[in-house]
Write a structure and sequence with these properties.
mainly alpha
Length: 303
Protein backbone atom coordinates (compact mmCIF):
# COMPACT_ATOMS: atom_id res chain seq x y z
CA UNK A 1 0.00 0.00 0.00
CA UNK A 2 1.52 3.34 -1.01
CA UNK A 3 2.24 5.73 1.82
CA UNK A 4 3.37 9.32 1.64
CA UNK A 5 4.87 11.17 4.55
CA UNK A 6 3.24 14.44 5.48
CA UNK A 7 5.11 17.68 4.88
CA UNK A 8 4.14 20.59 7.13
CA UNK A 9 4.70 24.23 6.17
CA UNK A 10 7.78 25.65 7.88
CA UNK A 11 6.95 27.95 10.79
CA UNK A 12 9.06 30.64 12.42
CA UNK A 13 11.06 29.32 15.37
CA UNK A 14 9.10 31.34 17.93
CA UNK A 15 5.75 30.18 16.59
CA UNK A 16 6.92 26.57 16.46
CA UNK A 17 8.09 26.73 20.07
CA UNK A 18 4.76 28.22 21.14
CA UNK A 19 2.82 25.50 19.33
CA UNK A 20 5.00 22.83 20.95
CA UNK A 21 3.90 24.10 24.36
CA UNK A 22 0.23 24.32 23.38
CA UNK A 23 -0.02 20.98 21.59
CA UNK A 24 0.44 18.63 24.53
CA UNK A 25 -2.26 16.10 23.66
CA UNK A 26 -1.25 12.47 23.25
CA UNK A 27 0.39 12.04 19.80
CA UNK A 28 -1.07 9.47 17.43
CA UNK A 29 0.96 6.65 15.91
CA UNK A 30 0.97 8.69 12.70
CA UNK A 31 2.45 11.71 14.53
CA UNK A 32 5.21 9.61 16.07
CA UNK A 33 5.93 7.94 12.74
CA UNK A 34 6.27 11.33 11.07
CA UNK A 35 8.76 12.46 13.73
CA UNK A 36 10.75 9.22 13.40
CA UNK A 37 10.91 9.57 9.61
CA UNK A 38 11.93 13.22 9.80
CA UNK A 39 14.70 12.38 12.27
CA UNK A 40 15.89 9.67 9.90
CA UNK A 41 15.93 12.06 6.97
CA UNK A 42 18.18 14.44 8.92
CA UNK A 43 20.58 11.67 9.92
CA UNK A 44 20.81 10.19 6.43
CA UNK A 45 21.69 13.64 5.10
CA UNK A 46 24.85 13.77 7.22
CA UNK A 47 28.25 13.00 5.72
CA UNK A 48 30.04 9.74 6.51
CA UNK A 49 32.68 11.63 8.49
CA UNK A 50 30.02 13.31 10.62
CA UNK A 51 28.31 9.97 11.24
CA UNK A 52 31.61 8.31 12.13
CA UNK A 53 32.57 11.00 14.65
CA UNK A 54 29.11 10.89 16.20
CA UNK A 55 29.24 7.08 16.28
CA UNK A 56 32.66 7.17 17.95
CA UNK A 57 31.29 9.51 20.61
CA UNK A 58 28.28 7.27 21.05
CA UNK A 59 30.47 4.21 21.63
CA UNK A 60 32.56 6.04 24.23
CA UNK A 61 29.53 7.49 26.03
CA UNK A 62 27.92 4.04 26.19
CA UNK A 63 30.82 3.12 28.46
CA UNK A 64 28.94 5.04 31.16
CA UNK A 65 26.45 2.17 31.34
CA UNK A 66 29.19 -0.35 32.08
CA UNK A 67 31.07 2.09 34.32
CA UNK A 68 28.13 3.02 36.54
CA UNK A 69 27.19 -0.63 36.91
CA UNK A 70 30.74 -1.72 37.75
CA UNK A 71 31.39 1.10 40.24
CA UNK A 72 28.23 0.26 42.19
CA UNK A 73 29.12 -3.44 42.30
CA UNK A 74 32.71 -2.73 43.37
CA UNK A 75 31.68 -0.32 46.13
CA UNK A 76 28.97 -2.56 47.58
CA UNK A 77 30.82 -5.89 47.43
CA UNK A 78 32.85 -6.92 50.46
CA UNK A 79 36.44 -7.73 49.42
CA UNK A 80 36.99 -11.47 49.00
CA UNK A 81 33.28 -12.23 48.48
CA UNK A 82 31.08 -12.56 45.41
CA UNK A 83 28.47 -9.87 44.63
CA UNK A 84 24.97 -10.79 45.80
CA UNK A 85 21.77 -10.56 43.75
CA UNK A 86 20.81 -7.36 45.61
CA UNK A 87 24.14 -5.75 44.69
CA UNK A 88 23.67 -6.66 41.03
CA UNK A 89 20.16 -5.17 41.18
CA UNK A 90 21.48 -1.89 42.57
CA UNK A 91 24.27 -1.84 39.98
CA UNK A 92 21.78 -2.23 37.13
CA UNK A 93 20.04 0.95 38.26
CA UNK A 94 23.02 2.82 36.78
CA UNK A 95 22.95 0.87 33.50
CA UNK A 96 20.70 3.46 31.76
CA UNK A 97 23.31 6.24 32.14
CA UNK A 98 24.98 5.66 28.79
CA UNK A 99 21.67 5.43 26.93
CA UNK A 100 20.41 8.68 28.48
CA UNK A 101 23.56 10.56 27.47
CA UNK A 102 23.69 9.12 23.94
CA UNK A 103 20.00 9.41 23.08
CA UNK A 104 19.41 12.88 24.51
CA UNK A 105 22.79 14.08 23.24
CA UNK A 106 21.88 12.82 19.73
CA UNK A 107 25.04 10.77 19.30
CA UNK A 108 24.79 7.90 16.84
CA UNK A 109 23.87 4.54 18.39
CA UNK A 110 23.57 1.55 16.08
CA UNK A 111 20.54 0.01 17.81
CA UNK A 112 18.56 3.24 17.51
CA UNK A 113 19.16 3.06 13.77
CA UNK A 114 17.21 -0.17 13.53
CA UNK A 115 14.20 2.15 13.86
CA UNK A 116 14.81 5.59 12.36
CA UNK A 117 16.21 4.97 8.86
CA UNK A 118 14.32 1.70 8.40
CA UNK A 119 11.04 3.48 9.14
CA UNK A 120 11.87 5.99 6.42
CA UNK A 121 12.90 3.30 3.94
CA UNK A 122 9.54 1.56 4.36
CA UNK A 123 7.85 4.73 3.08
CA UNK A 124 10.56 5.97 0.71
CA UNK A 125 12.59 3.12 -0.82
CA UNK A 126 15.12 5.53 -2.33
CA UNK A 127 16.84 5.80 1.08
CA UNK A 128 17.82 2.10 1.17
CA UNK A 129 21.47 2.54 0.17
CA UNK A 130 21.88 5.55 2.43
CA UNK A 131 20.64 3.40 5.31
CA UNK A 132 23.23 0.72 4.54
CA UNK A 133 25.89 3.46 4.45
CA UNK A 134 24.75 4.70 7.85
CA UNK A 135 24.83 1.20 9.36
CA UNK A 136 28.24 0.44 7.84
CA UNK A 137 29.60 3.68 9.28
CA UNK A 138 27.97 3.80 12.71
CA UNK A 139 28.47 0.20 13.85
CA UNK A 140 32.28 0.14 13.43
CA UNK A 141 32.49 3.63 14.92
CA UNK A 142 30.45 2.53 17.95
CA UNK A 143 32.71 -0.52 18.43
CA UNK A 144 35.81 1.65 18.12
CA UNK A 145 34.37 3.99 20.73
CA UNK A 146 33.70 1.05 23.06
CA UNK A 147 37.31 -0.06 22.54
CA UNK A 148 38.56 3.42 23.40
CA UNK A 149 36.58 3.31 26.64
CA UNK A 150 37.95 -0.16 27.43
CA UNK A 151 41.54 0.99 26.81
CA UNK A 152 41.14 3.85 29.26
CA UNK A 153 39.48 1.58 31.82
CA UNK A 154 41.90 -1.35 31.55
CA UNK A 155 45.26 0.10 30.55
CA UNK A 156 45.41 3.30 32.60
CA UNK A 157 45.17 4.07 36.30
CA UNK A 158 41.92 6.01 35.89
CA UNK A 159 39.92 3.33 37.73
CA UNK A 160 40.61 1.40 40.89
CA UNK A 161 41.56 -2.26 40.33
CA UNK A 162 38.34 -3.53 41.92
CA UNK A 163 36.26 -1.49 39.47
CA UNK A 164 38.24 -2.87 36.53
CA UNK A 165 37.70 -6.37 37.85
CA UNK A 166 33.95 -5.70 38.11
CA UNK A 167 33.90 -4.48 34.50
CA UNK A 168 35.76 -7.57 33.35
CA UNK A 169 33.46 -9.82 35.35
CA UNK A 170 30.41 -8.39 33.59
CA UNK A 171 32.08 -9.02 30.23
CA UNK A 172 33.01 -12.59 31.11
CA UNK A 173 29.42 -13.29 32.11
CA UNK A 174 28.25 -12.13 28.67
CA UNK A 175 30.68 -14.14 26.53
CA UNK A 176 30.10 -17.42 28.38
CA UNK A 177 26.64 -17.74 26.83
CA UNK A 178 26.18 -19.93 23.71
CA UNK A 179 25.56 -18.13 20.36
CA UNK A 180 21.86 -19.05 20.28
CA UNK A 181 21.35 -17.51 23.72
CA UNK A 182 23.27 -14.39 22.69
CA UNK A 183 21.13 -14.03 19.56
CA UNK A 184 17.77 -14.33 21.31
CA UNK A 185 18.98 -12.15 24.15
CA UNK A 186 19.98 -9.61 21.48
CA UNK A 187 16.48 -9.82 19.99
CA UNK A 188 15.05 -8.81 23.36
CA UNK A 189 17.60 -6.02 23.75
CA UNK A 190 17.04 -4.68 20.22
CA UNK A 191 13.28 -4.75 20.70
CA UNK A 192 13.45 -2.71 23.90
CA UNK A 193 15.95 -0.13 22.60
CA UNK A 194 13.99 0.45 19.39
CA UNK A 195 10.88 0.86 21.55
CA UNK A 196 12.76 3.50 23.55
CA UNK A 197 13.58 5.36 20.33
CA UNK A 198 9.93 5.19 19.22
CA UNK A 199 8.54 6.46 22.54
CA UNK A 200 11.14 9.24 22.90
CA UNK A 201 10.06 10.49 19.47
CA UNK A 202 6.55 10.92 20.86
CA UNK A 203 7.61 12.52 24.14
CA UNK A 204 6.87 16.19 24.79
CA UNK A 205 9.60 16.86 27.36
CA UNK A 206 13.17 16.07 28.36
CA UNK A 207 11.94 14.80 31.72
CA UNK A 208 9.52 12.42 30.05
CA UNK A 209 12.25 11.20 27.71
CA UNK A 210 14.64 10.56 30.61
CA UNK A 211 12.00 8.51 32.43
CA UNK A 212 11.23 6.45 29.32
CA UNK A 213 14.91 5.75 28.66
CA UNK A 214 15.69 4.92 32.28
CA UNK A 215 12.77 2.55 32.85
CA UNK A 216 13.15 0.53 29.66
CA UNK A 217 16.95 0.34 29.54
CA UNK A 218 16.94 -0.66 33.22
CA UNK A 219 15.01 -3.74 32.09
CA UNK A 220 17.69 -4.41 29.44
CA UNK A 221 20.39 -4.35 32.11
CA UNK A 222 18.38 -6.28 34.66
CA UNK A 223 17.67 -9.04 32.16
CA UNK A 224 21.29 -9.11 30.97
CA UNK A 225 20.00 -8.80 27.41
CA UNK A 226 22.76 -8.53 24.82
CA UNK A 227 23.38 -5.04 23.49
CA UNK A 228 26.08 -4.95 20.85
CA UNK A 229 27.59 -1.65 22.07
CA UNK A 230 26.82 -1.35 25.79
CA UNK A 231 28.21 -4.82 26.51
CA UNK A 232 31.22 -4.36 24.21
CA UNK A 233 33.00 -2.11 26.70
CA UNK A 234 32.76 -4.80 29.37
CA UNK A 235 33.95 -7.62 27.11
CA UNK A 236 36.82 -5.60 25.65
CA UNK A 237 37.94 -4.68 29.17
CA UNK A 238 38.09 -8.38 30.06
CA UNK A 239 40.14 -9.03 26.91
CA UNK A 240 42.58 -6.17 27.53
CA UNK A 241 43.42 -7.37 31.06
CA UNK A 242 44.00 -10.90 29.79
CA UNK A 243 40.90 -12.65 31.14
CA UNK A 244 39.52 -13.51 27.70
CA UNK A 245 40.89 -14.16 24.22
CA UNK A 246 40.37 -11.72 21.34
CA UNK A 247 38.61 -14.48 19.39
CA UNK A 248 35.75 -14.46 21.89
CA UNK A 249 34.68 -10.95 20.93
CA UNK A 250 33.56 -11.53 17.31
CA UNK A 251 31.98 -14.82 18.39
CA UNK A 252 29.82 -12.79 20.78
CA UNK A 253 29.40 -9.66 18.63
CA UNK A 254 27.99 -11.26 15.47
CA UNK A 255 24.96 -12.97 17.09
CA UNK A 256 24.42 -9.92 19.32
CA UNK A 257 24.28 -7.58 16.30
CA UNK A 258 22.02 -9.98 14.39
CA UNK A 259 19.69 -10.24 17.37
CA UNK A 260 19.58 -6.49 17.91
CA UNK A 261 18.71 -5.93 14.24
CA UNK A 262 15.97 -8.58 14.24
CA UNK A 263 14.48 -7.28 17.47
CA UNK A 264 14.57 -3.62 16.44
CA UNK A 265 13.40 -4.03 12.86
CA UNK A 266 11.04 -6.98 13.23
CA UNK A 267 9.42 -6.34 16.60
CA UNK A 268 9.17 -2.54 16.52
CA UNK A 269 9.72 -0.85 13.16
CA UNK A 270 7.66 -3.20 10.99
CA UNK A 271 4.87 -3.52 13.56
CA UNK A 272 4.60 0.23 14.13
CA UNK A 273 4.69 0.85 10.38
CA UNK A 274 1.86 -1.68 9.99
CA UNK A 275 -0.08 0.06 12.75
CA UNK A 276 0.16 3.38 10.91
CA UNK A 277 -0.61 1.97 7.46
CA UNK A 278 -3.45 -0.37 8.33
CA UNK A 279 -4.80 1.41 11.38
CA UNK A 280 -6.49 4.14 9.39
CA UNK A 281 -4.14 6.96 10.40
CA UNK A 282 -2.31 7.06 7.08
CA UNK A 283 -5.51 7.13 5.02
CA UNK A 284 -7.00 10.06 6.94
CA UNK A 285 -6.30 13.61 5.89
CA UNK A 286 -3.87 14.66 8.59
CA UNK A 287 -3.86 18.22 9.91
CA UNK A 288 -0.74 19.79 11.35
CA UNK A 289 -0.99 20.92 15.00
CA UNK A 290 -0.57 24.61 14.18
CA UNK A 291 -3.24 24.33 11.48
CA UNK A 292 -5.65 22.71 13.95
CA UNK A 293 -5.56 25.86 16.06
CA UNK A 294 -6.37 27.99 13.02
CA UNK A 295 -9.29 25.73 12.08
CA UNK A 296 -10.68 25.90 15.63
CA UNK A 297 -10.40 29.69 15.61
CA UNK A 298 -12.24 29.92 12.29
CA UNK A 299 -15.01 27.63 13.52
CA UNK A 300 -15.40 29.71 16.70
CA UNK A 301 -15.62 32.91 14.66
CA UNK A 302 -18.33 31.46 12.43
CA UNK A 303 -20.33 30.29 15.42
Amino acid sequence: MPFRLRRYPVQPAAAAAQDAQKNLERPSAQDIYEQVANNARQELGRSSISLAISGLAGGIFMGLSALGNAIAIALLTTPGTAPTAKIFFIGKMFYPLGFIVVILGRSQLFTENTLYPVALVLAEKKHFWKTLRLWATVLPANVLGALAFAVIAALTTALKPEIVQSLAGLGLEAIHNPPATIFWSGVMGGWIIATVAWLVSGSHSITGSVMIIWMLTFVVGLGNFAHCIATSGEILTAILIGKAAWSTYPIWLLPAVAGNICGGVGMVTLLEYGQVIYGGDADAEAIAPHIKEEVKAEESAKA
